[in-house]
Specification:
This protein is an alpha+beta fold. It is built from 13 helices and 13 strands. It starts with 22 loop residues before the first strand and ends with a helix.
Length: 459
C-alpha cells in the first residue's frame, strides 16, 4: 500500500439510565428526559426485545381479558360507546409498558355534565405543565405529536381532569406507583438494559450472517504497493463486495500472483467460544427480563420450559393463579379505579369490572370479574380445577384410601359424628353427597350399629 493507515477506535460505552436525572424542567413544561425521549427509549426496547414484547403484550391481554364490564351505575351499551375496545387495549398496554397512561376525557356539549368519550394517548406525547411546586398535582398538561419536532407540532395546553371550563376537553393522567414524583418508571425498570441487550445480540448476529459468519477478516495483498490511492480503494471495495453478505457465503476469489511469496493471504478474526457467549447472553437477558416483570412461569408467555410438574398444564395453572394474585389483579384495580373516577362525572354510582377469558371459567355460569375496590376478588376456575385435581390425587393415593377407611371406622365406633364425617369426605376428598353417603352407609344403619356396639360393651 502507498501509506500505512492507523485509526483509533473508541468502543461503545454503555451509560445506565439514572432515574434521578430523567426529569427535565423547562420554562413551561416538564418532560421525561429531553423531549420526552425516555418514553421513546422504553418503546424502542420493547420493539427490539422479543422477550419484553411477549411479556408486555401477554400482561395486557391477561388484564383486559374478555373486556370491560358495567357492573352497576351505567349500561354496557353506554360504556362501550364511551371507551372503545381499541382505546381500552391501548390504555392497558401503555400502562404496562410505560406505567404512564394519559387519557383524553371529552364531555357532552349540553344538558347534565357527563363524560361521552375516553381516548388513550401515548405517554410520549404528553408533558406536564410546570407547577410552582413539584410536589403539587399538575393543573394542566401539554400535548405534542412529537416533542423532538415541537417547532412543527406546536404543544397545546390541556387542563387537568376536573379543572377545565365550559366542558372543554381534559386530561386524566393514569400512572402507577413509582419513586419518581412526576413520571412513573416502568415496573420492570431494572430489566430495561437486558431488553436492550437482546436487541444488540440480534443486531450482531444479523451482521455476523451478512459478514459470512465471520467476526472479520484481514486481507493482506503481498505483491507490492498499489499504483495510487484510488486503485487501493477500488481493490478494497472489490474485496468487500465479493466477501461480505449472506449471499456471498462460499464465494470463490481467483487471485493471480507473481510467485508464492507475493500471494494474497487472508487472516480471520475469530471469537473464542462465540457460540457459548451468545447462548449465555441470550439466556441471561431472557431470564432477567422475566424476573424484572415478576413472571411466575415463562410458559404463560409462550415459552416452553422443563418443570417438575406432572404436566405442563399443572405448572401453568399454578403459575397463573400466582400471576393473577400478584400482578394481574393489582394492575386491574389501579386501572378500574382511574376509569371509575372519570366516569363518576355523570354516573356517580358507576362500578366496573374486568371479565376473565372464558377459558379460565370452564365450569362457571357467572362472569368472573375483578372490581376496583377489590371486594369481588377474581375467583377463576383455575382455583376450582387445581382443587379438584388435588382431591382426585388424594382419593387415588394409598394415604387417601387409608384415610377414608379410618373415617369409616371412627364413625362406626362412635368417635366421629356422621355429619362431620360426611363433610370431611365432601370438602377434603371432593366426593358429592350421594357418594359420601354410600361410603359411610345409611345414617340409620350406622346409628343402629353404634347402639349394638354399646350394648355389647355394657354386657
Amino acid at each position: 500500500m502507498k501509506k500505512d493507515k492507523l485509526e483509533v477506535l473508541e468502543f461503545n460505552n454503555y451509560v445506565k439510565v439514572n432515574p434521578q436525572s430523567l426529569l427535565q424542567i423547562g420554562n413551561k413544561f416538564l418532560t421525561n428526559g429531553p423531549d420526552n425521549d425516555f418514553f421513546t427509549t422504553v418503546e424502542n426496547a420493547y420493539l427490539g426485545s422479543p422477550t419484553l414484547q411477549a411479556v408486555v403484550d401477554g400482561y395486557a391481554n391477561y388484564i383486559v381479558g374478555d373486556g370491560l364490564k358495567a357492573v352497576e351505575g351505567i349500561t354496557q351499551e353506554k360504556l362501550d360507546k364511551i371507551i372503545s375496545s381499541d382505546d381500552l387495549q391501548s390504555l392497558v398496554h401503555e400502562y404496562k409498558l410505560q406505567r404512564n397512561s394519559p387519557l383524553q376525557v371529552i364531555y357532552n356539549k349540553a344538558g347534565d355534565l357527563k363524560v361521552t368519550k375516553i381516548h388513550s394517548i401515548p405517554a410520549r406525547q404528553i408533558a406536564v405543565d410546570k407547577p410552582e411546586d413539584l410536589m403539587e398535582d399538575p393543573l394542566a398538561y401539554w400535548f405534542s405529536f412529537d416533542w423532538k419536532l415541537k417547532s412543527k407540532f406546536k404543544p397545546k395546553l390541556v387542563p387537568s381532569f376536573g379543572l377545565g371550563e365550559d366542558r372543554e376537553t381534559e386530561l386524566f393522567y393514569l400512572k402507577g406507583n413509582s419513586p419518581q414524583p412526576i413520571f412513573a418508571l416502568p415496573d420492570y425498570f431494572s430489566g430495561l438494559q437486558y431488553a436492550q441487550i437482546e436487541e444488540e445480540i440480534a443486531n450482531y448476529l444479523r451482521k455476523h450472517i451478512k459478514n459470512n459468519f465471520s467476526a472479520g477478516k484481514i486481507i493482506n495483498v503481498n505483491q507490492g504497493e498499489a499504483v495510487n490511492e484510488e486503485a487501493e480503494e477500488d481493490a478494497e471495495r472489490t474485496f468487500k463486495r465479493k466477501l461480505t453478505g449472506s449471499q456471498n457465503a462460499g464465494e470463490i476469489i481467483v487471485s493471480f500472483n507473481k510467485d508464492k511469496d507475493s500471494a494474497t493471504t487472508v487472516d480471520s478474526i475469530e471469537i473464542t467460544d462465540a457460540y457459548q457467549q451468545f447462548e449465555f447472553l441470550s439466556n441471561e437477558a431472557n431470564s432477567k427480563i422475566l424476573l424484572a416483570n415478576k413472571v411466575t412461569s415463562p410458559s404463560l408467555f409462550g415459552q416452553s420450559v422443563a418443570t417438575g410438574f406432572s404436566s405442563n398444564s399443572d405448572e401453568m395453572i399454578t403459575a397463573l393463579k400466582t400471576l393473577y394474585r400478584n400482578q394481574i389483579n393489582p394492575n386491574r384495580s389501579a386501572i378500574l379505579s382511574g376509569l371509575e373516577n372519570i366516569l363518576k362525572v355523570g354516573y356517580p354510582d358507576v362500578k366496573l369490572a374486568f371479565e376473565d377469558f372464558k377459558e379460565l371459567k370452564e365450569n362457571s355460569e357467572e362472569p368472573v370479574v375483578e372490581t376496583a375496590d377489590g371486594v369481588e376478588t377474581v375467583e377463576t376456575d383455575i382455583d376450582t380445577k387445581v382443587e379438584s385435581e388435588s382431591q382426585a390425587g388424594l382419593r387415588g393415593s394409598v394415604g387417601g384410601v387409608t384415610g377414608i377407611l379410618s373415617i369409616q371406622t371412627a364413625v362406626v365406633s362412635g368417635n366421629t359424628g356422621y355429619e362431620p364425617a360426611i363433610t370431611i369426605l365432601k370438602e377434603i376428598y371432593g366426593f358429592d353427597q350421594e357418594v359420601a353417603v354410600k361410603l359411610l352407609g345409611n345414617k340409620e344403619d350406622i346409628n343402629k350399629a353404634i347402639e349394638e356396639e354399646k350394648n355389647k360393651t355394657t354386657k
